[in-house]
Amino acid sequence: MHQYKDHPIYGIGFRGPGKKWYCRGLIFDSEDKVTEMKRLESDELSFATKRKAEEHAVKLCKGWIDEQSGESDHAA
């Protein structure tokens, strides 16, 4: 679990067909920390390793949070 701007975020890598890894990002509410606010998935992109998929998912989460707060650039 990572924390970004008071939101708990998770980057999940999961195995898909052809031994490729795909990513899923989960963003939770900053107030109660248990309510899922957003689930992000990228079926178009695949990764060679689980770690790379997880890192990309965290990046997607940070980008979504920044968009919601009106920021366009975020630190990776």
List the helices and strands and how they pair.
Elements: E1 2-4, E2 7-15, E3 21-28, E4 36-47, H1 50-68
Antiparallel strand pairs: 1-2, 2-3, 3-4
Describe the structure.
- 25% of the residues lie in helices and 42% in strands.
- The radius of gyration is 12 Å and the shape is elongated.
- It has 76 residues and is of the alpha+beta class.
- The protein has one helix and four strands; from the N terminus they run E-E-E-E-H.
- The chain starts with a strand and ends in an 8-residue tail after the last helix.
- A hairpin with a 7-residue loop joins strand 3 and strand 4.
- 20% of the residues are buried.
- It has one helix spanning 50-68; strands at residues 2-4, 7-15, 21-28, 36-47.
- The protein has one domain: 2-Layer Sandwich (Double Stranded RNA Binding Domain), CATH 3.30.160.
- The chain has a four-stranded antiparallel beta sheet.
- The mean pLDDT is 90.
CATH class: Alpha Beta
Give the domain tally: 1
CATH fold field value: Double Stranded RNA Binding Domain
Main sheet overview: 4 strands, antiparallel
CATH architecture: 2-Layer Sandwich
Distance between the termini: 15 Å
Strand arrangement, major sheet: 1-2-3-4
What's the shape? Answer: elongated
Give a brief outline of the structure:
Helix content is 25%, strand content 42%. By secondary structure, the protein is α+β, with helices and mostly antiparallel strands.
Task: Note the main attributes of this structure.
76 residues, Double Stranded RNA Binding Domain, four-stranded antiparallel β-sheet, 1 helix, 4 strands, 42% strand
